[in-house]
């Protein structure tokens, strides 16, 4: 599949991307470094999505508004603590399919995300847009390029061979279960119909958790994020912990946009969140109608897959 890429339309020339040394850097988990000011880099974020509205504007009058709101209504009613526990147990068996990372990327051509108000293109387009934008600005962080490529692969849960789960159990913003639902979560009003909403054990700030317990201890709403995290860990990826953090929490906007639930984070989470903030700008704002020459970039990403993953993975 060959599609034209006008890279200059997607990202501007990077400014100083020397992340090897300097006083304006923070050392992150695993020895990686990132600038303190993550907004001062080469990527130029567009002001509007291709519908002409601000990104993540859930109130804009677009053809997708009703679809997106109905999606979140179903998500907020059905995502419960017990439901997520069952899904993690079932899909943690990894007994659905055996295939390579790139084979999974190609499967994603069949997926469109109903929760996304900004784009209705096949998902592989978004993966490559994100990865290529990051690659341009952070050429030495190959683990981050690959993380961008694979971060949404869990959306294959929508396909028949993976159980054909409903959209509300696969995509959309994620949020913790087992504690109070923060009001920053999009379409929060629908949580009132969730069985967990009036459960005293789950209705306090900490709920069943303790302050500083670490997000790895927290049950997060089930979807593509948590599934891909389980797949990567079980197949013994050598990606750093920051990559796994990005994969699992990139849809957790209440945390990395609104700053909610930080009281549950531990020190490693704090460090990894810095990388997630960098990643998120590319994940959100690289969504566009600019197309990628898939065959041209494929050899590079296949080399990264070979570096960080086995040839075949259990899914």
From TrEMBL:
A cellular component term, taken from the record's GO annotations: cytoplasm
Chief place of localization: cytoplasm
Cofactor: Fe cation
Pathway: Polyol metabolism; myo-inositol degradation into D-glucuronate; D-glucuronate from myo-inositol: step 1/1
Cofactor binding, note field: Binds 2 iron ions per subunit.
Positions of substrate binding: 56, 113-115, 155, 172-173, 250-251
BP-aspect Gene Ontology terms: inositol catabolic process; L-ascorbic acid biosynthetic process
Domain of life, source organism: Eukaryota
EC number, UniProt record: 1.13.99.1
This protein's record includes keyword Oxidoreductase: yes
Family annotation (Pfam families): MIOX
Key words, A-Z: Ascorbate biosynthesis, Cytoplasm, Iron, Metal-binding, Oxidoreductase
Keyword Secreted: no
Residues involved in Fe cation binding: 126, 151-152, 224, 250, 283
Compartment(s): Cytoplasm
One Gene Ontology term of the molecular function aspect: iron ion binding
Substrates-to-products reaction catalysed: myo-inositol + O2 = D-glucuronate + H2O + H(+)
Family annotation (InterPro entries): Inositol_oxygenase
Family: Belongs to the myo-inositol oxygenase family.
Protein name in the entry: Inositol oxygenase
Organism encoding this protein: Escallonia herrerae
